[in-house]
Design goal:
By secondary structure, this protein is of the alpha+beta class. Helix content is 53%, strand content 11%. Among the domains are: 157 residues, Phosphorylase Kinase, domain 1, CATH 3.30.200; 201 residues, Transferase(Phosphotransferase) domain 1 (Transferase(Phosphotransferase), domain 1), CATH 1.10.510.10; 137 residues, ABC-type transport auxiliary lipoprotein component (Rossmann fold); 103 residues, Serine Threonine Protein Phosphatase 5, Tetratricopeptide repeat (Alpha Horseshoe), CATH 1.25.40.
Length: 943
């Protein structure tokens, strides 16, 4: 059998040497359809196609959809293809043909693309074709040519799509060149289209001018979305470079054949290559042959676009070249980021991309010169060894000059309650400084670990926090008098720059703080804008008692474990602050924030929701420009309304005045993960953690992201960091314990972490709940019952009454009478909760489980489905998958094994879904244990 690659004897496309009659699959397809006669087979091929290929040596790797008005065939009916009458050929490539066709059943004109698999078609191949084509067909976007139908006929895979009357981008610009601004606008539109597909889990893999159509109004539409791999098979045909894309527009990782490493960055490269051609008239790389093109692509850098077209400015050239970086991680993080940077350029704003500096260009040069690189590496290693001694001697490693940490102020008052007041002074100074964009200010959370240190090693603290300067002081309050003593110290040399003592009336405390912040800014020569100065000078309240209550509430609500009992204490303190000063906008914002949290986690009732809305509205009414008020309103939209876009709009306003606030980045990241934007969410949470590296709550949220996306090792390390910061934190320890179960099926970590928590403390019954969970996973059912009976009327997890767990445990013990009794007692409790919060999905789930335990199958399944309808995965990618698992449990308990298994199989491969170790351990799945399909699931490798 021949193995060499030849060319099609008819059209000139490359074909595998073992192809029948040395025809490409497209011509072989037409032979099967009866569209070729002997003369045409023996001829030199289509002149239109040959001409097109001369212009683009990579064209034979894809399908070229030519303008219908320039069709190579007449408009008569060529052949019937099932429901389609093939009218004329409008494009072809090495793997198939595109026809203008008439769909008889719907009496409409469509573009019909037929993939000529012929003798190479296998059942596996057809299945993959259907799966990927149907996924692409699910994309509904005005910038994507819609796919109408997907199918196969006699081994010929096909799909029909909308017939676009315009032409290909490359053909259009040949007839009428496009201006630089038009090119930027077009690529920005296409990039947003690509981002939409990426959000739906589909890569294009073959972005090129030939796959971008312009309609009659000049709007771009992307075609062949997600179908570039459809012609892959298991034989030698697949091992050519033909299936990877078009060489001139192919990303380096794609050209190297690393299909497993293709990511959204691959399509960003394709967008950059199209942009390059629009700007310069040439693709980034074009050799005489496919091999030469790929060699250039992998080994060389593209020429500066400005060298080929002097009209291109530096910023636009920088944007284009960032897309074409060899390293995918150095390209834009997403197609949306590219679109947004193009928008910046179009609006004459500063772009985010940066031109490669001398070191970057040097690194790339060294990568192409490995022998020289080896010599330089040896020299660098020697220099590094010398530099290490300098680093250790502290002659180097200077933090930013305009960086500062405000250490906790010491309380010199006899009354321990005044500790809050000392903290308030420190916090207000730090808050004022943090509003100055020209300063790097270390977060309060990161400095609080030094609260107990009386004799402070300021050099060490400065190094640990990365701050060149520190502020320390003390506060003494007696009646209506207050004394504040502060000093600014250069932490690098332990040199005191200035010291100041203020002895004034209590009412002047805010003036003291404002003066201190401005004095520090002056000393550090930080630029202070008029707006920043105005914000610093504005007093949050004229009532010192209101401010004290506000600070007490702030301290409680800032703790990493947001227990219900603590949160309600914070609520009372914030309400006290608003009553003491009805014009205190910051207190209303904090109160709204607390109500948002209580609604989201404990009390999802209409009354609580209205309290949250009213407080946020009042904060904005009192002070429309207060960033904390916009933050609170954003949390209301997010937690109470699930209106993500409205929330993001409010967070964007807050971010303008709080550019380095970890709370803002945490809020944005929290929404993005519910939108399924895991990469963007994690980036924002990482940013929050960098701004507040000692905040256990931020770290716990970051760890949860890695946990949900099954990067268990990274999550475990982050939970360890959170525990180190807050050793008494319940949440961080329990997240680590749950992770050990989901990751490795290790139950020992739960007991170990519970032992580290303070004895005799059980906030909200969560420790009891955790011990019951452990006993259930250990199958110590009688011990679990005994523990439940020792704890009267504990409501676990805010939704699940004790009676529910009793019913489940008796069901595991096969004691049907006691199980039914417990479920009957649990039912009215949960039904009442559902009536109070009819739109809370978690309450419907618990009611469904109780009804399943009572044998009321139809009602149980209806409640489970209602929960999933209220919070589908498409709306909440974090909690939605958990409700899907709960519905699977209801199916399992009601005997609907097939339905349960179908949901579980999908959940195992979904972020935030179930894991195999938990399936093996959790007695909730005992009704499925004997099912071979369930056993097979449990034997699989962890996704």
């Amino acid at each position: 059998m021949k193995t060499a690659t030849t060319v099609c004897g008819r059209c000139g496309a490359k074909v595998s040497g073992d192809a029948t009659r040395e025809l490409c699959p497209a011509c072989l397809l037409e032979t099967g359809l009866g569209l070729l006669d002997d003369e045409s087979v023996a001829g030199a091929g289509s002149s239109a196609v040959a001409s097109a290929k001369a212009d683009d040596p990579g064209l034979d790797d894809g399908l070229s959809v030519l303008d219908g008005k320039k069709a190579a065939r007449s408009a008569k009916i060529l052949s019937d293809f099932g429901d389609y009458e093939l009218l004329e050929e409008i494009g072809r490539g090495g793997q198939g043909v595109v026809y203008r066709a008439h769909q008889k059943s719907l009496n409409r004109t469509v573009a019909l693309k037929v993939i000529g698999l012929g003798p190479w078609a296998t059942e596996t191949h057809l299945k993959r074709f259907r799966r990927e084509a149907e996924a692409a067909a699910s994309l509904e976007h005005p910038g994507i040519v819609p796919i109408h139908e997907v199918g196969e006929r006699d081994g010929q895979c096909y799909f029909s799509m909308k017939f676009v009357e315009g032409g290909q981008l490359d053909e259009v610009v040949k007839r009428k060149p496009m201006s630089i601004r038009q090119a930027a606008e077009l690529v920005a539109k296409v990039a947003r289209t690509v981002h939409y597909a990426h959000e739906h889990g589909i890569l294009h893999r073959d972005i090129k001018p030939g796959n971008i159509l312009l309609d009659a109004t000049g709007e771009p539409l992307l075609t062949d979305f997600g179908l570039a791999r459809l012609v892959e098979t298991e034989n030698t045909v697949t091992r050519t470079l033909e299936v990877l894309g078009t060489p001139s527009y192919m990303a380096p990782e794609q050209a190297a054949g690393n299909n497993a490493k293709l990511t959204s960055a691959t399509d960003v490269y394709g967008l950059g290559a199209v942009f390059y051609q629009l700007l310069t008239g040439h693709p980034p790389f074009a050799g005489g042959t496919t091999y030469e093109t790929i060699k250039l692509l992998i080994e060389t850098e593209p020429s500066q676009p400005r060298q080929l077209n002097p009209k291109i400015d530096r910023d636009l050239s920088t944007i284009c070249l960032k897309c074409l970086e060899k390293d995918p991680q150095r390209r834009y993080s997403s197609a949306l980021a590219l679109a947004e940077d193009l928008d910046h350029w179009l609006k004459h704003e500063a772009i985010q991309a940066r031109r490669a500096g001398v070191f970057t260009r040097g690194r790339k040069w060294l990568q192409r010169k490995p022998a020289i690189a080896a010599l330089i590496v040896a020299l660098v290693a020697l220099a590094a060894a010398m530099a290490w001694n300098v680093w250790k001697s502290e002659l180097f490693r200077a933090p930013p000059e305009k960086s500062i940490a405000v250490l906790p102020f010491q309380n010199l008052s006899r009354d321990p309650d005044n500790a809050y007041f000392a903290g308030a002074v420190q916090d207000e100074i730090l808050t004022d400084l943090a509003r100055i964009a020209d300063l790097k200010v270390i977060s309060r959370t990161s400095t609080m670990q030094y609260k107990s240190e009386v004799a402070r090693n300021l050099r060490k603290i400065g190094r640990e926090l990365g701050a060149a300067h520190v502020v320390q002081g003390n506060v003494q309050r007696a009646g209506n008098r207050v004394r504040v003593s502060t000093q600014l110290i250069d932490a690098r040399s332990d040199r005191h720059l200035w010291a100041q003592t203020y002895d004034r009336d209590l009412a002047d405390v805010f003036a003291i703080q404002s003066e201190l912040a401005q004095k520090i800014a002056d000393e550090l020569r930080a630029k202070l804008s008029p707006n920043e100065k105005a914000r610093i000078e504005r007093r949050p309240t004229e009532n010192s008692e209101a401010y004290l209550a506000f600070m007490q509430g702030h301290e409680i609500f800032s703790r990493p474990d947001k227990f219900r009992s603590n949160t309600e204490k914070a609520e009372q303190l914030f309400e006290k602050a608003t009553k003491l000063d009805p014009n205190f906008a910051g207190a209303f914002a904090a109160l709204a924030w607390v109500h948002d949290w209580i609604y989201h986690d404990f009390d999802p009732t209409p009354a609580r929701k209205e309290k949250a809305r009213a407080a946020a509205v009042e904060a904005l009414r009192l002070q429309p420009n207060l960033p904390e008020a916009h933050l609170a309103m954003g949390f209301y939209y997010y937690r109470c309304e699930r209106d993500y876009q409205a929330a993001l709009n409010e967070f964007a306003i807050a971010k303008q005045s709080l550019p380095n606030s970890p709370e803002v980045y945490l809020a944005i990241g929290a929404i993005e993960r519910r939108q399924g934007k895991w990469a963007e969410s994690t980036a924002n949470l990482e940013k929050a953690a960098s701004l507040s590296p000692k905040d256990a709550w931020v770290l716990q949220n970051l760890g949860d992201n890695y946990y949900a996306t099954r990067n268990f090792e990274a999550a475990d390390k982050i939970f360890d960091r959170a525990i180190e910061v807050a050793p008494k934190s319940f949440g961080s320890r329990m997240e680590k314990a749950k992770l050990a179960v989901d990751w490795k099926g290790d139950l020992s970590v739960i007991e170990k972490e519970l032992m580290q928590l303070p004895a005799g403390v059980d906030p909200d019954g969560l420790i009891t709940f955790s011990r019951v969970q452990l006993l259930l996973l250990q199958r110590k059912f009688l011990d679990a019952i005994a523990l439940l009976k020792q704890t009267p009327q504990v409501v676990f997890n805010y939704d699940k009454p004790r009676e529910f767990f009793e019913g489940a445990i008796y069901a595991f013990l096969n004691d049907k009478e006691k199980a039914l009794s417990a479920f009957e007692r649990a039912r009215p409790i949960v039904e009442k909760a559902v009536r109070e919060s009819p739109n809370d999905a978690s309450r419907h789930v618990i009611l469904g489980m109780i009804l399943a335990g009572l044998g009321e199958k139809e009602l149980a399944i209806a409640e489970g489905k209602r929960a999933v309808e209220l919070l589908p995965e498409s709306q909440d990618a974090l909690d939605g998958p958990k409700l899907t698992v709960a519905l699977a449990q209801i199916y399992a308990w009601t005997g609907e094994s097939d339905q349960a298994l179908q949901l579980l199989e999908r959940s195992l491969r979904t972020p935030s879904g179930i894991t195999i170790p938990l399936l093996r351990l959790d007695p909730m799945w005992d009704p499925l244990r004997s099912d071979p399909a369930f056993q097979k699931l449990c034997e699989e490798k962890q996704p």
